[in-house]
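To whoever picks this up:

The nightly regression suite flagged 3-oxoacyl-[acyl-carrier protein] reductase as changed. Nothing in the input moved, so I suspect the structure step. Input below, exactly as stored in the fixture:
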Amino acid sequence: MSLDGKVAIVTGSGRGLGLAYAQELARLGASVVINDVDATIADEAVASIRAAGGTAISVVAPVGPTETARELVKAAVDTFGRLDILVTNAGVLRDTVLWKMSDDDFDTVIGVHLRGTFTCVREAATHMRETGTAGRIICIGSPTGQRGNFGQTNYAAAKAGIVGMVRTWALELKKAAITVNAVVPVAATAMTATVPYFAAAVEADNAGEPMPSFFRHDLGFGTSADVAGMVAYLASDAAADVSGQVIGVGGDRLQIWSHPEAVVSEYHEGGWSYEALGADFAEIIAGNRQSIGEKFPPLPEDLQRPAPTA
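Regenerated output under the current build:
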């Protein structure tokens, strides 16, 4: 299970989930390329890995442009001599409802999440194929991309698109023995810290205390470290036969997300005309209507917190 001798790039790894992924890969022996847009944050991330006995360098650049993808791969190869692992974690948020979302709100999120994943994976996969490296590519998804979420048109589109690309790349890169998987984390982040529902869990995490079992077990909601183990496992030789999968991790829970499948197939001779649909569709949809968005159970009374005041 060691990653000794492996080299990894983790985008958006200056802090939060990305840093946890990078630190876990380094703990297991991989040399890591840290990436962030803030040089100070990137330097601190590198220092944390070196202080723990690991090896890391940083590339300060925004993810999205092809030039950044090339710089990341070049840094890994020039410094450490190879590239075995890519984790595409970089992301930004521009949350607002559809009728208030600007072109820039949409383009910024798509550019970093979706285009950034594409450019980095293209560059890394090209290098791995040319060098005959049986690489590991782990792309970070989200429950929002699986189920949708109010106010996140751009983010939902990007994360759903990432899963579509992962499934395609798993097919295209199979012959080269390069695995491609998506991890869907459910963990305390800067975003969840602002949601009152998760307040008790975030309070515990910030205090260095275990999260209540309701969050860890019932919701599958945990810390960055809870997700990092899965990322590292998928980066290892133990996962050589795992590709094209979407795996959710949070708290004490692990989930395998299914590929979209038809839940019912109905046939009408001659096709489904307006009149035929008028006669039959209401009954068909009534028993097969699919849910949208995340559904959370009521918080236990002892975990409820007052809503923040303006």
